[in-house]
Known about the structure:
The chain is mainly α. The protein has 18 helices and no strands. The protein has one domain (2-436). Helix content is 81%, strand content 0%. The radius of gyration is 21 Å and the shape is globular.
Amino acid sequence: MKSTVEKILKQTLWTSTGRSSIVTFISMVASTGFAALYFIVLARMLGPYGNGLFSVALAVMMTITGVVDFGTNFGIVNFVPKAVSEGNQRKALAYLKLGLVSKLVLGLAATFIIALTTSQISSVVLKRPEITPILFISSFGIIAGLLYGYGLSVPQALQKFAIWGGLLTGAGFFRIITVLILIIFGWLSAQTAMLAYLIMLLFPFFGSLPFLPKGILKAKIQPVDIRKFFSFNRWMALFTLTVSITANMDRFFLARFSGLSEVGLYMAATQIAGVGLNVNAALATVLVPKFAAIRNRDALIRFLKKSILLTSGLAIGGALITLFAGILMESLFGQQYIPAISTLRILILSVACVLAFLPFTCVWLYYRGDSRSFALYYILNGVILFLGNLILVPRFGATGSAIASLIANALTLFVGAGYTLMILRKTTVAPREKSEIIEPVITDSGR
């Protein structure tokens, strides 16, 4: 295991891409730490009910934000670097302006619509009229969340990873400062915490403004730019839509069928288990450049075997953490969250499946450029997750949602691994052209 890790690191880190990966990795680790501390403090101070109230409102905001973004972050990160490398400044500025304009127009429209329909969403859809006030506040997070994504995507597209890392970690740090201020002055509630959270979403956007290229607002956008930008990889747009819905589906089912306290317990468990997802994202920053650079089948198979050994080892090691689930839950969140221990154990196993699947994802998306299979994988995962929550949550509450997550991730792991092995048995498995490889979009490692 040690030699495998060393070989992978040597092959990826001693390049400019590798150095960028180091900055990305460190920034994500710091951001993860800040996010974990923030939500732990918030959960302890608000209790299961208040934490559930905050989490449901946040889930609605994040879902709508992901839907109306329409893959804009992917478009910025893919088209801007290519235009810069070609020396086409007009096109690079046009894509930056197009991304900003689309986010502003769609974001303001969505914010207006959701703000006017918060009562219907809370009473009719979620059957929780008590969340109407905080849901109204969170509706303004739609435009804030879109600008947050823009503020992080632009430095990434311009290859300014130090700035990207500073904005990402800075947002997490100041988020903690705001919640501490609310606690000190006795102002903390689910509503004030949400308002402070939304304000901090704007930090990366305004922080990125001094580093943006001059002339973005004056850039001329041609019809061909619009067609190319919005027709870019419809499967990735579908993937973004699917992830936005499935990532928050559990909270919606729990809110409707089990109550806000059950949501709060579940979110405490996901905060601990979610560390594995951040490990997965950080590891991807190291593996992705290597998979994208592989140009032949034999090299792919050799590196895939090493990657599977690495991620499987980490997944097994992570699964062993279930032995300490009780200690972790009580020490981090307090005795009021003890009922979430069984939920935590199941979620840890679910995250282990996600970690084990990472090498296969890299083959699809970064070697073959097969975003269609990637999107269909997440749609399959989402369908299983939806059916599982629909059947299990009314009977078992938070534990039922965790079981649904485990079933979905385990089944898609085996299906995805089998599909990958099947395509590798073909005599030729040629990668797409380099320009067609989808660059990863990295935003926040927190919730």
